[in-house]
Amino acid sequence: MNLLSFMLLDQTAQQTQSPITMFVLIGALLAMMYFMTIRPQKKKQKEEQAMRDNLQIGDEVTTIGGIVGKIVTTKEDVLIIETGADRNKIKITRWAISTNNTANERAEAEKEAAKKAQEEARQARLEEEGSKSTRKKSKKNKTEEE
């Protein structure tokens, strides 16, 4: 009996919901899907395209197929990379580039340099504060002695 009454109450509750509430829920669901799936994917695609547009001669790149080589020549949509010790040259399209290893190494080096500079500045600040506190202590000791 309880199950039957629960089902009847559920049906009446569903009938009294307004269509506006349903549209708001659907809109919220679509907005959440956009911000969770579509937007990050587009952002990643833009970053990849910017990386491919900024390729220069001498950069070491990895293709989607896993081939690692150094760029020798760049044209509109075609790159010629040099691979291996034999210096074999391969002609590939720009969209086939997966990563720019040279740019990644530069970015990591810049991060390391920034961390090192920040640590040095922190050490200098601590030394400066330490010297100020010793000066204050020495001034207090001199005034107490007098």
Please explain how this structure is put together.
It is a single chain. With 146 residues, the protein is α+β, with helices and mostly antiparallel strands. It has a domain of 53 residues. It has 3 helices and 5 strands. It has a 5-stranded antiparallel beta sheet with strand order 4-3-2-1-5. Strand 3 and strand 4 form a beta hairpin. The model has no long low-confidence stretch (mean pLDDT 83).
Which stretches are poorly predicted, pLDDT < 50 over at least 5 residues?
Answer: none
Beta-strand percentage range: 15-25%
| Quaternary assembly | single chain
Instruction: State the order of secondary-structure elements, H for helix, E for strand.
Output: HHEEEEEH
How many E-type strands? 5
Radius of gyration: 32 Å
In short:
By secondary structure, the protein is of the alpha+beta class. It is built from 3 helices and 5 strands, in the order ααβββββα.
Feature tags:
146 residues; alpha+beta; 5 strands
Mind sketching the topology for me?
Blueprint: H1 2-16, H2 19-53, E1 60-63, E2 68-74, E3 78-83, E4 88-93, E5 97-100, H3 101-145
Antiparallel strand pairs: 1-2, 1-5, 2-3, 3-4
